[in-house]
């Protein structure tokens, strides 16, 4: 076994772990759905219909946010598009890393914020957008900015908007099913045998715990994708130190983001709600702790 | 009867696997070609800047004509390059020659102050980064293809259908040393 510490190893280990989580999630979803179906006392076709309904509802709810991800997020964060003439250095940094990643150049946005931060979004590389705050452009040197840009472009290249949309649909489906089940309890049930009663209790427990568990799995996926973007980014710049220094700088900044929003916070390279509200710890769960990321980057140093 | 079905099923699976592997290899090979054309675009861009640079510098640099000849020579070699290795070597040569040219330019304040020269210098250093980036993308794709052609079982499909490994865009350490920076 090779030692697991080059950027390549970090990358493949995070890809494999994403798939393992997804596999586990699929089994979890099937199990929860089965328990609900039995709890309802439905026949197989009836249960299937209910699951189909929940899946379609969750799909519709998430499709809009997936398909218009760039427009929604950019609108919420108040980012303004820039052209090459506005900031040639930034434009070239993005353009050159795109050549290395084999991606089309995304639309580049700047947010009028003092707090240093950045994010990327868009349903596919052709509709991708990457946004920087004014603060990050002022504070980072060229190599650090390259590290951050490579991280964001890796989110685009790894199709993370799609990955998270798929996870959100499943989480949404579980939430809808739990909700329907809890409401249906008010109306009493069909005739049940003893097994029906057991499943009834299991289903009540599932209705309470499953949505929480689904959220936790979503966070695990999100964290994996962050670490994956770090590793893929390093493979583009071949300079782990740049991103590590940038993360340190960004996380030690005390400025707060005005346009920080609980709905979009998980997209940013560093949690923008730091010290701001109860949302802080919530988003902290979506992004891996900064020390973990820096330690992983330090491991890659000199091995790319 | 059952054995026949199992054999047919196994054969179908083998054929599906064969098709998928073959198509995968074709995709990887096409990606290498596409990545190569990206390097080519950047190299062309770089060599097309050279005549302008020579034009801008010519009037100032009187005593160090040798530097200019070196740059022109490297450019010709770059334009004549056929294989990735030749191109990499010529590109490396050009980088070295440009380095000496810019070093010489340091001693001509008027030249250094010229807007046109500054602009060209900036453009050239940017294309250099772009060549490096395109090279990196190309090498990543070559790595993917070569990995598939060396690992079993896709290596079997590769050798059956005559796929060949591609060469990386790089120069050896010795060739790097060949570049003399003359003043």
What oligomeric state is this?
Answer: heterodimer
Chain pair forming the biggest interface? A-B, 11 and 13 residues
**What is the topology, as strand order, of the major beta sheet of chain A?**
1-2-4-3
Major sheet size, sense and barrel closure of chain A: 4 strands, mixed
* Count of helical stretches of chain A: 11
Unreliable stretches of chain B, pLDDT < 50, 5 or more residues? none
The major beta sheet of chain B can be summarized as: none
Rg result of chain B = 24 Å
Give the N-terminus to C-terminus distance of chain B in angstroms.
85 Å
N-to-C SSE string of chain A, H for helix and E for strand: HHHEHEEEHHHHHHH
Order of helices and strands of chain B: HHHHHHH
Unreliable stretches of chain A: none
Class by SSE composition of chain B: mainly alpha
Give the percentage of residues in beta strands of chain A: 5-15%
Describe the structure.
The complex is a heterodimer of chains A (304) and B (183). Chain A is mainly α. Chain A is built from 11 helices and 4 strands. Chain A has a 4-stranded mixed sheet with strand order 1-2-4-3, sandwiched between helices. In chain A, strand 3 and strand 4 form a beta hairpin. The longest helix of chain A is centred in the last third of the chain and has 44 residues. In chain B, helix 1 runs antiparallel to helix 2, helix 1 runs antiparallel to helix 5 and helix 2 packs antiparallel against helix 3. The relative contact order of chain B is 0.15. By secondary structure, chain B is mostly helical. The interface between A and B is medium-sized, with 11 and 13 residues.
């Amino acid at each position: 076994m090779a030692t697991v510490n080059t950027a390549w190893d970090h990358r493949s280990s995070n890809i494999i772990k994403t798939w393992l989580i997804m596999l586990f999630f699929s089994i979890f979803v099937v199990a929860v759905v089965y328990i609900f179906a039995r709890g309802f006392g439905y026949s197989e076709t009836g249960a299937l219909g209910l699951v189909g309904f929940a899946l379609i509802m969750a799909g519709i709810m998430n499709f809009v946010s997936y398909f218009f991800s760039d427009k929604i997020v950019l609108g919420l964060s108040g980012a303004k598009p820039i052209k090459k003439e506005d900031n040639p250095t930034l434009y070239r940094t993005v353009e050159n890393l795109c050549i290395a990643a084999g991606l089309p150049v995304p639309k580049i946005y700047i947010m009028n914020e003092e707090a240093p931060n950045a994010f990327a979004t868009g349903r596919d590389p052709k509709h991708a957008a990457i946004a920087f705050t004014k603060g990050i452009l002022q504070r980072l040197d060229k190599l650090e900015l390259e590290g951050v840009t490579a991280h964001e472009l890796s989110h685009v290249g790894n199709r993370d908007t799609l990955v998270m949309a798929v996870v959100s649909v499943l989480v949404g489906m579980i939430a809808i099913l739990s909700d329907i089940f809890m409401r249906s309890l008010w109306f009493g049930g069909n005739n049940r045998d003893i097994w029906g009663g057991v499943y009834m209790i299991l289903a009540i427990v599932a209705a309470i715990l499953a949505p929480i568990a689904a959220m936790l799995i979503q966070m695990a996926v999100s964290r994996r994708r962050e670490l994956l973007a770090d590793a893929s980014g390093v493979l583009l710049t071949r300079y782990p130190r740049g991103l590590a220094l940038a993360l340190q700088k960004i996380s030690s900044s005390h400025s707060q983001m005005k346009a920080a929003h609980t709905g979009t916070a998980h997209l940013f390279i560093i949690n923008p709600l730091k010290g701001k509200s109860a949302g802080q710890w919530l988003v902290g769960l979506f992004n891996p702790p900064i020390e973990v990321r820096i330690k992983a980057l330090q491991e890659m140093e000199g091995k790319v | 009867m059952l054995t026949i079905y199992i054999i047919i099923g196994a054969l179908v699976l083998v054929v599906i696997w064969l098709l998928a592997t073959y198509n995968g290899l074709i995709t990887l090979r096409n990606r290498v070609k596409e990545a190569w054309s990206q390097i080519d675009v950047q190299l062309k861009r770089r060599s097309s800047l050279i005549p302008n640079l020579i034009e801008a510098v010519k009037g100032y640099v009187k005593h160090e004509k040798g530097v200019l000849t070196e740059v022109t020579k490297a450019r010709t070699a770059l334009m004549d390059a056929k294989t990735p290795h030749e191109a990499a070597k010529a590109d490396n040569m050009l980088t070295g020659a440009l380095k000496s040219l810019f070093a010489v330019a340091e001693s001509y304040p008027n030249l250094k102050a010229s807007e046109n020269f500054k602009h060209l210098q900036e453009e050239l250093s940017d294309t250099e980064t772009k060549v490096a980036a395109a090279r990196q993308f190309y090498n990543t794709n070559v790595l993917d293809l070569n990995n598939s052609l060396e690992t079993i079982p896709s290596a079997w499909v590769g050798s059956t259908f005559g796929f060949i490994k591609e060469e990386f865009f790089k120069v050896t350490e010795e060739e790097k040393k060949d570049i003399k920076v003359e003043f």
